[in-house]
């Protein structure tokens, strides 16, 4: 249940169950991109999983849409301190995509069209914790928010949810992605406020 409170500083911020420490609630959907929005024609879209031994599994857009899709309702938390509760998505679970992939690796690097990368441990992509989403709020995902398809890993800060995703690489050792190499936390648990290295 949402509880509205005014706080003391004259700033009106809602305090709500389900909000991690240091976060405030937003009702709009901010756009945060480190560069220009790439436009990816659907006939050039692909998602490729590459194992630590170089084995590749790839889906084109038609093959991807033929996979089992799920509706997901989840809260999202950006490291810049906004959170949005109860967002609704439709996408393909990473459990489905990784089902027939043979790997002994523990880490992944997620890759995007445009060059963005972010590292996520493999176990954080499994057991209904991550999806490649192509709908938001019942509509096709807008390019600014990562359309045609983006990763969502909602239990970690939202920079781990790569927009315009096009693949993931399995790795034996953890390596930093784009923001992690710039000082952001390697894991990014919002409940532990793992914003920056050393948190
Ligand atoms: N490819 C790509 N994915 C990205 C980003 C980016 O710059 N490029 N920004 C990240 C950050 S910091 C956040 S908070 C969310 C923002 O998603 P939104 O723009 O849909 O709110 O996307 C994440 N995924
Ligand atoms: Mo972010």
Task: Describe the overall structure.
With 199 residues, the chain is mainly β. It has a domain at 63-199: Sulfite Oxidase, Chain A, domain 2. Helices cover 7% and strands 33% of the residues. It is built from three helices and 13 strands; from the N terminus they run E-E-E-E-E-H-E-E-H-E-E-E-E-E-E-H. Strands 3, 6, 7, 10, 11 and 12 form a six-stranded mixed sheet that branches. A hairpin with a 4-residue loop joins strand 6 and strand 7 (82-93). The longest helix has 5 residues, at 61-65. The protein is globular and about 45 Å long. The protein binds ligand MTE and molybdenum atom. Molybdenum atom binds at residues 32, 78-80, 158-159.
Concise account of the structure shown:
It holds the Pfam family Oxidored_molyb. With 199 residues, the chain is mainly beta.
């Amino acid at each position: 249940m949402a509880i509205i409170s005014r706080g003391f500083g004259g700033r009106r911020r809602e305090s709500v169950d389900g909000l991690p420490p240091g976060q405030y609630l937003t009702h709009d959907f901010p756009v945060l991109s480190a560069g220009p929005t790439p436009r990816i024609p659907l006939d050039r879209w692909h998602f490729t999983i590459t194992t630590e031994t170089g084995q590749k599994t790839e889906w084109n857009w038609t093959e991807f849409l033929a996979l089992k899709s799920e509706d997901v309702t989840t809260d999202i938390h950006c490291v810049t301190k906004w959170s949005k509760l109860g967002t609704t998505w439709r996408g393909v679970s990473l459990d489905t995509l990784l089902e027939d992939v043979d790997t002994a690796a523990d880490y992944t690097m997620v890759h995007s069209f445009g060059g963005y990368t972010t590292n996520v441990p493999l176990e954080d992509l499994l057991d209904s914790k991550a999806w490649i989403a192509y709908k938001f709020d019942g509509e096709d995902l807008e390019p600014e928010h990562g359309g045609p398809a983006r990763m969502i890993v909602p239990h970690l800060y939202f920079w781990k949810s790569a927009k315009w995703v096009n693949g993931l690489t399995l790795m034996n050792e953890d390596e930093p992605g784009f923001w992690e190499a710039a000082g952001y936390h390697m894991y990014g648990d919002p409940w532990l406020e793992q914003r920056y290295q050393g948190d």
